[in-house]
Each structure stands twice: as structure tokens, then as C-alpha cells.
Amino acid sequence: MLLDPRDSLGDRVRGRLAVAGPTAFSAYCIGAAFATYFCMYAFRKPFTAAEYDDGVLWGVGYKSVFVAAQVAGYTLSKFIGIKVIAEMPRGRRAVSILALIGVAEASLVGFALVPPPYNFPFLFVNGLPLGMVFGLVLSFLEGRRLTEALAAGLCASFIVSSGVVKSVGRWLVVDWGVDEYWMPSLAGLLFVPPLAAAVGMLSLIPPPGADDIAQRQERAPMTRAQRWAFFRRHAVGLTALIGIFVALTVLRSLRDDFAVEIWQGLGYGAAPSVFARSETLVMVGVIVISGAAVLVGDNRRALVISLGLVAAGFALVLVSLAAQTQGALGPFWFMVLIGMGAYVPYVAFHTTVFERLIALSDQRANLGYVMYLADSSGYLAYVAVMFAKGRIAGEAGFLTLFTTLAWWIAVACLALSVVLIAFYARKYRDAPAPLAGLAAERA
Questions:
Q1: Is the pTM here over 0.90, yes or no?
Q2: Separation between Cα atoms, residue 379 and residue 390, nearest integer Å
Q3: I need a labelling partner for 268 at 20 to 30 A (CA). Which of 82, 221, 323, 407 fits?
Q4: Phi-psi region for residue 4, left (φ > 0), alpha (ψ -120 to 50) or beta?
Q5: CB under 8 Å to 355, separation ≥6 — which residues?
Q6: Residue 326 DSSP SS3
């Protein structure tokens, strides 16, 4: 394909991507999506690397209040996103990402300027826009034959980036003496230039082609009536899937937000490098496993296999807990293995479970709608856990809270995963051609 030299650089990139092979196309899309969401984490997570042990509000330590405030904003954002992400036109996605993150950075400056404890509302405001960024980024990648590989690359960002940006936060506080309250906004500013470049790359990704649509269904904005119709049609299985996702959100969020306290409870300390090292190992294992689903062309088989991965992840959590209890697993590898056990199912939902469920349907749908149904429920449950911590683990620390919940979650969700494997294997045993129903709906 010859490109007109008078075309803009953006037009040239779009033209190249339109005719690129799967390897080059995947590399570009993964790089753009990974970098965008990686940078977003620099505006969300660095504050959790600080201890904020200088006060108590309403009988609760500052850090717990700060985490709960941000998660509350993030949770509300997920509920708003059910409508906003499902209805967002393609042309407004990139500018929306930049605007949302701009609001988040401004709130971090307010968090530093206003003295504690009166600054906690700024973290609520910080979480409010950031909860919609993932859905906007994912919407550039869904509905393609390569979606699992692309989404796995995106998910790598939220596995490794959390550890890296917390390492940056600890580095600013420990090595540079930056005040704990100014550290989050400074960490965010460091990532503004790469964020702008990454969003620019993301905006140039072309929409899915005809072959993608033929295999994975066309993805388009959904009206309220279409959202309700999809939910009613899939209510039984979708409710169970969301239940598992809720449990996973609680488990991985506890491990993520209170990593400093969990590492300390394990007797390992919280050196800045430990977050990046442990999460990088988790990322490599999880992404290789999840991305491999792109090799399975049949949507029914891919859905069943992905649910098998969900079950396997919970089994690994149980094995890790048992080994740690018996003293057979050291702190570092306990955090790595239990992280992998939590993230394999969590990432499988983002890359394959919901993607293939939509591909098997004959209804108008998009991944953002289903993901935000699950995400909003998950973060609401996490906020509830934050407020119920005392009843769950008494006066014990976050390590006890984390391991207690991990036991219950792994046992219950492993059983439910097995039931869902049988349910979907039977439900879609004679699945029709994916476009038949949609074509009839349009006619």
C-alpha cells in the first residue's frame, strides 16, 4: 500500500496499521494500551506506598481512611461507567482519557495542600475519574480475533504498574525525602509526558475489520434498553460470573492496596524494589497463560477453557495458603504465587470470559458494559470489606485479614467455577453462528 506523502503522520500510522501483520499490529496495540494504563496507575496507586501513620480519624488510621475514600470514588466511577463506557462513541475516547486523568492529578495537588484529616475527600475525587479509564482503553482492543493477546498486554499494566509506581512512591519518600502528602502528585507529574504519547498512539488504532466482526460480533455503543435486554438474557450465568469477579476484586485489591502492611506482617519488610520484583514475576506468568487463549478459535471452547483457568487460579491460592501456613513457603514466593493465583482468574475475565460470552451471543453488546457491571459490584464489595475489617479479623493486622478472606474466597469460588464450566459447556453445546441473530435484529 502506497501512502500519500501529503498525509499527516497520524494518517500514515493508521494506514500502516490497517495492512500490518498480526505480530506488528499486536505489538503496536499492546504497547499503546499498556503504556496508557501503566501511566494511569501513577495517578492512582503511589499514595498507598506511604504509611500515613500520623493520625486517626473516627477511630480509623489515616491510611485506611484514604484508601477507603479513593476506592469509594473509584467504585462510584464504575457505576457511572456502566452507562458512560457502554455509550461512548469511538471518536471521544482518547480525549476523555486525558481529561479524566487531568482531574485526578488536580485532586492529588489538593490532597497535598489541605492538611489531614480534611484532605481525604480529595482522594475520593481522585478515584472518581480514574475508574473509567480502563473501559476506554479496553474499547480500542475488544471485538478482534487478537483480543485475548491485546487485552492480556493491557492487563499486564495493572499487574506490574501497581508495584512499579509504588516503588517510585517509596523511592521519592525514602531516597529523596519527599513529604508523604506531596509524593502522590509528584509521582503523577513524572508520568505526564509518556501518558500523552501513549494516548496519542492509542487514538490511531483502526476499528475491527470484517473478519474480526465475523468471529467476535460487532461491538457498538449500547442504549439502556439494549443493556437491559442483554442482562436479562444472560442473568443466571452472568450473575454467577460477577459473583466470582467480586470476590477476586476484593482479594487482589487487598493484596495491592495494603502490600506494605502484608509484606511487613510476613516479616519481609517493604524495601522499594520488592513491589516491582514480585509483581513482574506475577505479570509474566499470568500474561503468558491468559494471552494463549487467542489460539483457541472456537468461542465455546475458549469460554470453557478460560473458566478452567479461573478454577486453577483458586486452586493455586489454596495451595499457597496451605504451604505458607505449614512454613513450607517463604514470604516472597508466597506473595508471588498467591498473586498469580488471584490474577490468573482476574485477568481471564478481562481477556476471555466476557469477550467470548459476547461473541457467543446474538445480541448487540460491548465489553465495557459487561466489565463495568462486574467492576462496580467488585469495588462496592471492597469498600464494604474496608469498613467491616474489624469484624472479619478483629484487632489483627492486614495479613490476617488477607489470609482469612483468601481461604473463604478460594474455596467458594473454586466450587462455583466448576459449576459454571458445566453450565456453559451445556448451554452453548449447539451454539449458532455468531452473526445470525444480530443480522435478524438489524433486518
A1: no
A2: 19
A3: 407
A4: beta
A5: 142, 147, 148, 151, 216, 367
A6: coil
